[in-house]
Amino acid sequence: MTAARRRDRAVYTRSHPALFALLSLTRCAPVVRIGRTVLVHGTDQYREVLTRLPLDRTATGTTGGIAREVSGGDGVLFDQAGADHRGARRALAAALNASGVERLRPLGREVLERRLAPLADGGSVDVVDVALELAGAVTAELLGLDLAPRRLADAARVAAAAAARVHLPGPLARRHRSAAATAAGQLLALVGDERAAMLAVAAVNTTAAAIPRAIAWCADDGRWPQAADPATREALADELLRVLAPSPLLPRVAGADGTLGGRPVRAGDRLILVARHAARAHDRDPSVSAAQPAATAQLVFGAGPHACPGARLARVQLADALAAFAPYRPVVSRARVDRRSALPGWAVLEVSACASP
Ligand code: HEM
């Protein structure tokens, strides 16, 4: 196992060791049933669930269900149902198309240029801190809000972490639920409505997880020449997103009886879609010369009618981050896993320069 993969595994093993072990042990089979829960590891089966199987998008424990419970609302973006959702999705897709992304891009680049300056003077930089500011700045602009980037990013991060704990079993369930409602209320007060809150959660948490993990991977795996070269940078960004699978598990619930990989699935079955395994993140290292097919790589953004509308922006932002860090050839000087975050990632990822641009 490469040093990059070894370090990156820690974001799973130090935050959810039992879950990581269960998923690793069962991944040889494309579909594994444990009672009413179905683990979906296979590439084709993962795609099949998201594109062909009717899903109950608001059931308890799914992304949409958690969003609805926590915000106390109906019709929020992750509910993923109804005409209201389709209209909002169309508007968002327009804001995040090629010209929309080019409009947002300078904001992220400005944050990178300013925040990476200490590397030139022999200082260090916390990549998590930079990624949060970048995500906050871009998301505030997308939402048309005049907010301090870190204020928005922190509120979105706290709300997501609290929401992720709502369904943990145990004696603290009531406390988790109330903490989640408070955090969601604070985010709502900041951004104005449930749809904006859900968009902030989706954009900030994925970006804050992905960019630091990608920078650590490049540092540990000697990828800076590929990151510096415009001819390989975008392919590297795509491959890193595939291998990092920043949103590694999609919890869903079957909305009707059907079949999956030729086996019966019943309405109400819990489906745990393992994006990390579907995209072959666990056993195919990033390669710019022999990249996995786009159809496989893009599974980390979901599939079908509800696939991530922010995928283009996420790719461009990561490519810009690679371009900004590469001239310094940074090495990781300090790293601490975030055990409380909604998505696997670093709480601190400090890097210092090995070269001056
Ligand atoms: C590395 C970055 C990202 C990853 C890995 C990621 C991944 C995902 C995944 C797996 C889904 C669920 C798709 C499905 O159910 O088929 C999703 C949905 C979504 N993502 Fe992303 N995402 C990222 C960045 C972003 C950004 C930057 C934005 C906004 C600017 C965004 C906005 C959304 C929204 C609004 C949805 C819900 C779509 C719907 O319900 O129809 N994401 N994302």
TrEMBL record:
From what superkingdom does this record's organism come?
A: Bacteria
> Which SUPFAM superfamilies does this one have?
Cytochrome P450
GO molecular function list: heme binding; iron ion binding; monooxygenase activity; oxidoreductase activity, acting on paired donors, with incorporation or reduction of molecular oxygen
Stated family? Belongs to the cytochrome P450 family.
Q: What is this protein called?
A: Cytochrome P450
Q: Which organism is it from?
A: Planosporangium mesophilum
